[in-house]
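seq:
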Amino acid sequence: MHSTLPPTATSLQLLHSAISISADKLAAVQNLAKGIYQSAGDSRNRSVAAATCIEILANSQHRIALASDALPRGGTKDAKAWLSAALAYQYDCWNSFKYANDTREVAAAMTAITNLMVASSNALSMASALYAYGSDSAAWKPPATERDGFWEPVGASGGTGVPGVPSNLKADVTVCKEGGSGCYKTVQEAVNAAPDNGVKRFVIYIKEGVYEESVRVPLAKRNVVFLGDGMGKTVITGSANVGQQFMTTYNSATVAVLGDGFMAKDLTIENTAGPDAHQAVAFRLDSDLSVIENCEFLGNQDTLYAHSLRQFYKSCRILGNVDFIFGNAAAIFQDCQVLVRPRQLRPEKGENNAITAHGRTDPSQATGFVFQNCLINGTEEYMALYRRNPKVHKNYLGRPWKEFSRTVFINSFLEALVTPQGWMPWSGDFALKTLYYGEFQNTGPAADLSHRVPWSSKIPAENVLTYSVQNFIQGNQVSSSAAGPSS
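struct:
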């Protein structure tokens, strides 16, 4: 398509051409990844990296196709969300190969991925310009963020939130510890029973019990719902961590969801790897327009991997210590408890904890973490340590994992354990000029902004609706019927 653009191409034709170039480059990289996987031989590092790439590049391909289909229908915000994710998956593939870069083939693949990311970034910035400045491409401007004084156009109303998980759902299948009598013994067996590309919700009722398993909801399993018997009653548990040979952060998740329209309610997901085990994910989410309500996530470092796409967490409890809410999703946390827990084997020594580590790599990505009406505190065990020696226990709202990291806290209660500086650098001055860390009308002992680091911001009142459920994650699309695109 891009070779036959007319001289008077419309803005939509220009954008479709850019997306087409990205798709072509992606197909070539997918072939390279498959070749590396097939020739990996005894190199487990290389085969794990290539397998991860094959999975996430298939998702990237899916998102690019969805974006291309959405644009002629006026779905520019959807296209932005999907192109943002497509680029994020490409970056993650590059990053996977970085740790297995020991052959010419891998080096060539990394170069090809770098070129692919340039093309994808270009398509994404054009989609952002189309949304921000309209269809006259002469009026388009380069990507800009809140730090540059740029605020996206917002709808007239911020919306009041999404409805959450519907209350009248009937179970399609049941999971119970003993198995038999019409119920599955494992959560994974129940997921496998869901139809591929389901249009209706597929409701899995998981009875009270501790289920020790690794659960994967593939891309084709759409509109899957997990219903438990309550936090602490229905528990899915695992202990995978990067301290184990050939284990990666991405693969360490106890539960990982790719299929769109996912919902979960009334359960606990944990990673019990312990405070000395480094990255150990409890829950990784890549489901667009997903809703998680009244769930608990327990871990230490990297508890909740809000990896990509549009996510809504309502009345959840999230426990951890190092970067324990991280990823490159557009995620809203509403009415949640975010609790720091002791970090080391000898926690009385003290520590520096960052609660969040948002990983936006491109200024046009429509991603960020938004905390609305949340409580930021420590567990009882942690607060006992903190009170004995506050000077050595330092906690920060976030640090910039990637260059355009974006995190905001709105109308939340910040307990005393949060340092007066509020935010933590990652390394030297990395990302300090490009990140956006904002606060608006928070309360509590740590809400005073007078000692905040100079590279954080107070959100202007006239712009706070940018981060509403409606504007930030298009919450109206999470309807009472099944969610997610039909193609």
